Amino acid sequence: MAQEIVAREGGYVNDPDDPGGATKYGVTVHTMRRLGLDLTRDGAVDAQDVKRITRAQAVEIYLEHYFLRPRIAELPEALQATVFDMYVNAGANAVRILQRLLVEMGEQVSVDGAIGPLTIAACARAYVKAPNHMADAYGIARRNYYFRLADQRPASRKYARTRAGGKGGWIRRAEEFISARYHMTDAEFQARVATWG
């Protein structure tokens, strides 16, 4: 899974509209600072360090800090890939999306962005109730999260809609984890983004 995320994230970028800042293979300068990864050994973690990160290092970071430590590995297997991918993309918001979904399904969990024993147990119960729909429900909630971000922050719309007007990377990424029958049609997508101008 981590290698797929690295491939999906791509190489080095430093987009001024991206709050993550300098990024390579999806690993941001902020993550590298938090982990103390001064690859240039100049006493500062900056864009130059991001440029030096290798695929293998990115995979290791993802597995340790975005899959095992946040306890995504303890969720039902059908949810692991989509929550993991979203955690790489949005951090604790990935867990909040899951927790809100669990609340909607009648589970009593805090929406705190941390996977603990209560979230794990609630997720297991909810999955038993809807094993064939839980990953789709999460993916749809994830897609809606991206739309809300783009609604609120016009500079982020380029991640949700291409210059040509089609589905942008965020939406395509969410739909990679949703059954085809729940993908938005072009007409549905155009109707959803019509207010963006």
- Average pLDDT metric: 94
How much beta, percentage-wise?
Answer: under 5%
Count of strand segments:
2
Distance between the termini: 36 Å
Largest sheet: 2 strands, antiparallel
Q: What structural class results from the helix and strand content?
A: mainly alpha
Number of helices: 11
**In sequence order, what are the helices and strands, one letter per element?**
HEEHHHHHHHHHH
Uncertain segments of ≥5 residues (pLDDT<50)? none
Shape estimate:
globular
Spatial ordering of strands, largest sheet = 1-2
Radius of gyration computed on alpha carbons: 17 Å
Helicity level: 55-70%
As for the number of domains, it is: 2
Brief overview:
The protein has helices spanning 2-9, 29-35, 47-52, 55-68, 77-90, 92-104, 117-129, 134-152, 157-160, 169-175, 186-193; strands spanning 23-24, 27-28. The chain has 197 residues and is an all-alpha fold. Strand 1 and strand 2 form a beta hairpin.
Commentary on this structure:
It is globular, with a radius of gyration of 17 Å. The termini are far apart. The chain contains 11 helices and 2 strands; from the N terminus they run H-E-E-H-H-H-H-H-H-H-H-H-H. Helices cover 57% and strands 2% of the residues. The protein has 2 domains: 1-69, no CATH class; 75-197, no CATH class. The model has no long low-confidence stretch (mean pLDDT 94). Strands 1-2 form a two-stranded antiparallel sheet. The protein has helices at residues 2-9, 29-35, 47-52, 55-68, 77-90, 92-104, 117-129, 134-152, 157-160, 169-175, 186-193; strands at residues 23-24, 27-28. The chain is mainly α. Residues 93-175 form the Peptidoglycan binding domain. Residues 3-91 form the TtsA-like Glycoside hydrolase family domain. InterPro entries: Lysozyme-like_dom_sf, Peptidoglycan-bd_3, TtsA-like_GH18_dom. Pfam families: Glyco_hydro_108 (PF05838), PG_binding_3 (PF09374).
